[in-house]
Design goal:
Helix content: 25-40%
Structural class: alpha+beta
Shape: globular
CATH architecture of one domain: 2-Layer Sandwich
Strand order of the largest sheet: 3-2-1-6-11
Distance between the termini: 45 Å
Radius of gyration: 21 Å
CATH superfamily of one domain: ATPase, nucleotide binding domain
Length: 255
């Protein structure tokens, strides 16, 4: 039986639905449909009904090809995405025993309960390094012994409303939300090579409403930021500055 994975990108300028078939070497795209986007401003869903009207035709086109999907991954972006640093520490009563995967996973889950501002939600928790007694800044704590373990993390935080609005759109389209993924993280995994992520790289993804920045080094995501300007801002500046039509200034921007 084919293993299909579906994802939806609710962008400022277009809505994209894609289905991939999992294989040993990765994924093979079996369907990709897009439509002009309505109801999304600077990467955030602001009008659920308009976004739904943009999304449904792409799903119908996929089903018309005999591909049935019931759940999807959804990318989330928006100008209010931010990145905070956080630390957690634990004293270990059995210092002679190895640090286990369970201990590390429990620390990571606990970080999801970190205090954030009202109306915000932690989307991702990314481990940066660990301190085990006098061993500072180690990448992998599992298998080490010590009386105290500390973990440094990056918390990727977004607006609760943005998350909830995306979820409502998917559910009203008759689908189940598999997971929400920060779009710069998804883009990086799709386009960056292993060497780039190991040596250090900054990925810039310019969309219609926002520009996403992600920095990776030692195969660890170190920082992300969302700039509230994208291709639409450049197009509008050209239109006003040069006094040309929308079609012509879009062509000028591309050239």
């Amino acid at each position: 039986m084919k293993k299909l994975v579906a994802a939806v990108d609710l962008g400022t300028t277009k809505v994209v639905s894609v289905v991939g078939e999992k294989s040993e070497s990765g994924y093979r795209i079996v369907a990709l449909k897009e439509a002009p986007s309505k109801g999304v401003m600077r990467g955030e869903v602001v009008n659920i009904q308009n976004v739904l009207e943009s999304l449904k035709p792409t799903l119908e086109e996929i089903r018309a090809e005999g591909i049935e999907i019931s759940e999807v991954y959804v990318g989330i972006a928006g100008q209010n995405i931010k990145c905070n640093s956080a630390r957690i520490s634990r004293n270990r009563s059995r210092s002679s025993e190895w640090v286990t995967n369970r201990e590390v996973e429990e620390m990571e889950r606990e970080m999801f309960n970190s205090r954030v501002n009202a109306g915000e939600k932690i989307l991702h928790v990314i481990p940066q390094s660990y301190n085990v007694d006098d061993n500072i800044g180690v990448k992998e704590a599992v298998g080490m012994t010590g009386t105290r373990i500390e973990g440094d993390y990056k918390l990727f935080i977004g607006k609760t409303n943005s998350f909830e609005h995306s979820k409502i759109v998917i559910e009203r389209a008759g689908l189940k939300l598999k997971d929400i993924i920060l779009e710069p993280v998804a883009s990086a995994k799709a386009v960056l090579t292993e060497d780039e992520m190991e040596l250090g790289v900054a990925m810039v993804d310019m969309g219609g409403g926002t520009t996403d920045l992600l920095i990776i080094q030692d195969n660890i995501i170190r920082h992300t930021a969302v700039i509230p300007f994208g291709g639409n801002s450049i197009t509008e500046d050209l239109r006003q500055g040069c006094g040309v039509s929308l079609r012509n200034d879009e062509q000028m921007k591309i050239q």
